Backbone:
């Protein structure tokens, strides 16, 4: 049985003012092509399927996109196994699961051999079996969503914790307990091939410059030293940096695109593994995914730096760029500097500027302050960022109203 492992799709995500939908769809399409090219039987997506920034219509479009892209894979008997991560919207995912259960009301008993050719989503710990298409032996799959109180502490969700540490301790125990219960289930065969898919922070992994939009103290860290022994393959999600942990078959596939500046040096990919009647057939293989370049550009002297940047970055049209700008009033025209930078880096996702005179005069604006821009620019930038996924027409209309409001405000003050 050929298994392709991926995770952390974050579909419909955005970075600053940049909508990442198309970048992420391109990556998903490449994964679907790998499924066909390598005659994959099971595609495992180990959580964080959708961005928390995705609106309901964006979620709908993501599902539609799956339908198109994976139609041939599913129609050909392929199976997609997914589970929820910490970024997945609980209500939306549970609605999906409920609808799928209505469509196939008899499927889903623990340890059951489930029909191939469709998608399964685990919002709770789940144990199922799939038969190898060619030789008929079953492979056991254990799907473990990210441990939230709602998913793992049934009935206890109103329990109050004395501290975040206590909450994490309870969740770590609940996660291990759920897994133990599955392995003790009468249908679970410790000798038969088994794959674990989980969205979790496994102790000893390299998180790189930081977790994706999460404070380290909020994360649930699992020891998991027995997993390498217990499973033929462990398909992990949550950490965006691709790597294996503890053993070559315990892996984070990593995210499918560069999601923020912390991932600028990652080599993205998906993992292909083959499990036979006796377990893993060979070492897992990484199939590469090209990803969007992301970097920071610092402009200290616009009159010299802009012509240089123009020469050095002729192909930056698609790059995600964070801009840090210093300019001198009376010498540099800020508006013109910003326009020129936008021409070189049309996909800048964040920018910040400081006036050098203000800095030298020792202004009240501290060096660490994110910006000293005016009220109007702050409002405009904020709205443009917030409205990035709205229709252009709607966005322009809102911005126009706000411009008018700011005008009126100025007039009434003067
Ligand atoms: Mn993630």
Residues:
């Amino acid at each position: 049985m050929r298994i392709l492992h991926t995770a952390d799709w974050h579909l419909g995500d955005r970075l600053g003012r940049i909508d990442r939908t198309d970048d992420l769809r391109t990556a998903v399409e490449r994964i679907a092509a790998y499924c066909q090219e390598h005659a994959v039987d099971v595609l495992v997506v180990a959580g964080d399927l959708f961005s928390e920034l995705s609106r309901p219509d964006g979620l709908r479009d993501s599902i539609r996109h799956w339908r198109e892209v994976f139609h041939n894979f599913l129609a050909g008997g392929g199976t997609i196994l997914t589970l929820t991560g910490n970024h997945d919207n609980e209500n939306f995912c549970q609605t999906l699961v409920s609808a799928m259960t209505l469509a196939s009301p008899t499927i889903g008993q623990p340890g059951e051999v489930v029909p191939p050719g469709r998608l399964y989503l685990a919002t709770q710990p789940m144990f199922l079996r799939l038969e190898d298409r060619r030789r008929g032996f079953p492979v056991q799959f254990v799907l473990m969503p990210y441990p939230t109180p709602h998913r793992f502490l049934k009935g206890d969700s109103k329990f109050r914790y004395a501290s975040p540490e206590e909450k994490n301790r309870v969740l770590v125990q609940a996660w291990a307990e759920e897994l133990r219960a599955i392995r003790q289930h009468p249908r679970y065969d410790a000798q038969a091939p088994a794959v674990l898919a989980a969205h979790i922070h496994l102790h000893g992994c390299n998180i790189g410059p930081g977790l994706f939009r999460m404070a380290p103290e909020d994360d649930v860290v699992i020891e998991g030293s027995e997993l390498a022994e217990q499973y033929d393959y462990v398909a992990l999600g949550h950490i965006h940096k691709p790597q294996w942990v503890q053993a070559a078959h315990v892996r984070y596939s990593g995210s499918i695109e560069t999601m923020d500046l912390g991932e600028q040096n990652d080599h993205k990919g998906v993992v292909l593994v083959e499990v036979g009647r006796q377990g893993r057939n060979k070492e897992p293989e990484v199939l590469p995914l090209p990803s969007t370049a992301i970097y920071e550009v610092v402009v200290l002297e616009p009159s010299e730096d802009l012509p240089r940047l123009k020469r050095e970055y002729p192909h930056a049209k698609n790059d995600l760029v964070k801009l840090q700008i210093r300019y001198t009033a009376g010498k540099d025209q800020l508006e013109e500097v910003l326009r020129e930078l936008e021409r070189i880096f049309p996909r800048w996702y964040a920018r910040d500027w400081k006036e050098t005179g203000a800095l030298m005069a020792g202004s009240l604006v501290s060096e660490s302050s994110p910006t000293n821009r005016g009220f109007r620019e702050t409002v405009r930038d904020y709205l443009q960022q917030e409205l990035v996924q709205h229709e252009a027409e709607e966005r322009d209309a809102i911005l126009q109203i706000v411009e008018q409001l700011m005008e009126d405000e100025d007039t009434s003050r003067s």
About this structure: Residues 8, 48, 85, 87, 212, 238, 240 surround manganese (II) ion (CB under 6 Å).
